[in-house]
Predict the structure.
Amino acid sequence: MKKLLLSFAVGILAINLSAQTIVCNPAGNLIIYTNYDGGHLTINVDANIPNLKIGIVSYEPVTVMLGGAYVNNVTEVAYAGYNGTNGTNCGAAIPATTITGAPSGVTPTITSYPPSPLSNPNGYGSIICGYSCSTTSNQGGCNTVDQIEAYFMSIFSGAVLYAHDVQYSCWTTTQSVAAGGTCCSPSVGIDNTLTDNTVSVFPNPASDMLNVKINKSSTGAVYSIQNLMGQTVLTGKLIDEQSTIKINQLPAGVYLFKIGELTKRTFKVVKE
């Protein structure tokens, strides 16, 4: 039987800021994983994001394991939540939250129900849990996602939201950073085909070739591919309505594909 969420109550006083629209930036450096049930969260840092910061929120304890090709890019990791007693809902009982796999020199922090720096009438006053992407409906005692995002951006210096992955149930499978999240799709979530009605870019993720379809009126447009440090790694011109761009020489990671000189259209692509 689905457990009842804790009843909404008066929380610790927060700064009186208004609820915010969730805005994710493909060049951001903060990814957040939020749920209610806790569980076993394996984070695969497979995107080359410099100065990556990771936030985790749950009501029940969670075991967090960091790994992946770019795990050494992680500079800060923090958990905030109720961190209560976990039963056998996620398998064997988890007595308390733990975080392992952080790079040398990075000390994860675990904080129980810190005050939210953002007030939202639909969310709790302390950071304790989350289960949906809504900021405008009552969250049954959990936080709205804008409160959670505001918290991590307040404790991580220089943090810009890249993605926020939210679910109710236990974490059971590996979560890949390059896959983005659930609360900013499609601007951060990875679609197999990216389109803005005049341009289509596919497949995504891609390993060897990137296909680009454009309108006839756009033929001749220049393109560039940049890494998340702003360095241009490929440039060229789209001379046909459908072009194929070789990307097999690029390292695996997240890139920004830009089309046009004066008015740029930008897509986030993942090189496997």
Residues 40 and 172 are 5 Å apart (CA to CA). The chain has two domains: 30-179, 194-271.
